[in-house]
Amino acid sequence: MVTMTGESGPLPISIESADVADLEAAVGVLRALDYRQGGGFCRDAVRVVKTASLLLHWGAVPDRLRARLNTVLADVHNLLGWTEFDIGHPVPARHRFERALGFAAEAGNDSLVANIRYRLGRVHLHHHDAPAALAEFALGRAAARRSASHRATAILAANEAWAFAMGGEEHAALTRFAEAEAAFVEVTGSDPWEAFFAETDLAAMRGTVLTELAGRHRGEAITELTAAASGYGADMARSRSLTLIMLAQNHASRGDLDEAARVGTVALDLAGTVASVRPKDRLAPLERLLAEHRGDPVIGALPDRIARYRSRPLN
């Protein structure tokens, strides 16, 4: 980055390719930290990067770098929106995502637009608003088609399946998930913001959809979630904790209290290492199911441990 000074004071910052590359690398580091430890661990750092990016945006940006810099700015706002969501601030999250959409549109980056719409939909899904989620996912799928990104298409279709399942629309949910699987087969590469979605995540999403559909699907949900939980490494602690919570919920729903207690304990221990409110919220169904068996020595003090964890404020 080069600045020049004249008689009248500082001239605009001259943006160079290396400056944009540095910002892209910084956002990549923050994204990895978010996956590993949750939004609460990197929120302040993301704000620092966002501030620096906004300063660069008002510098002297060559035409050849403008779309790339706008993509960086959109990506930073997108990540900041996700961290706001992760620590329980849905309204600021939506504001950040709207900012991200503006920058992504200015960059002409439909792949990133699709990702932002996916994340907006996930905010609605977390708060059990399936119709609002479906509206965002539909916009995201349109952007994914424009970008010709098979991975983005798979992400949006899988999440649409979840929203349909949440609304009790079994046929629509299974049909849309089949579309997600078909799109995933065609994946050859990815942009950084969608690279997280691999075979393990596809299995986790299938297990999630089947969990929402419940009934005869619980056995298959357990199989898919077990595979997904085994596939997540230390770099995806939040995803693994959420998957284990849902797996324990399925075991409890089937009356397999031994497995529900075992998996639930692992899930709770892991959730305690993640700076996110989402595991707290996702534990509510498991807490209710275990409360029906309070006093059973098989589950021991797990219901009380979950209640204490969910009542604690996020650090």
Describe this protein's structure.
Helices cover 73% and strands 1% of the residues. The protein is mainly α and 315 residues long. The chain has a domain at 12-106. The protein has a two-stranded antiparallel sheet. Helix 9 packs antiparallel against helix 10 (218-231). It is globular. The two termini are 36 Å apart.
Name the poorly predicted regions. Answer: 1-11
Strand content: under 5%
Largest sheet: 2 strands, antiparallel
Structural class: mainly alpha
Strand order in the sheet with the most strands = 1-2
| Terminal Cα span | 36 Å
Shape: globular
Number-wise, the strands total 2
Mean pLDDT over the residues: 89
User: Order of SSEs, N→C?
Assistant: EEHHHHHHHHHHHHHHH
Helix content: over 70%
Oligomer: single chain
Number of helices: 15
Cα Rg: 21 Å
Write the layout of secondary structure elements.
Elements: E1 5-6, E2 9-10, H1 17-37, H2 43-57, H3 63-86, H4 90-107, H5 110-126, H6 130-147, H7 150-166, H8 170-185, H9 199-213, H10 218-231, H11 237-253, H12 257-271, H13 278-282, H14 284-291, H15 302-311
Antiparallel strand pairs: 1-2
Helix pairs in contact: 1-2, 1-3, 2-3, 3-4, 3-5, 4-5, 5-6, 5-7, 6-7, 7-8, 7-9, 8-9, 9-10, 9-11, 10-11, 11-12, 11-14, 12-15, 14-15
Write a concise synopsis of the structure shown.
This protein has helices at 17-37, 43-57, 63-86, 90-107, 110-126, 130-147, 150-166, 170-185, 199-213, 218-231, 237-253, 257-271, 278-282, 284-291, 302-311; strands at 5-6, 9-10. It is an all-alpha fold and 315 residues long. It has a two-stranded antiparallel sheet with strand order 1-2.
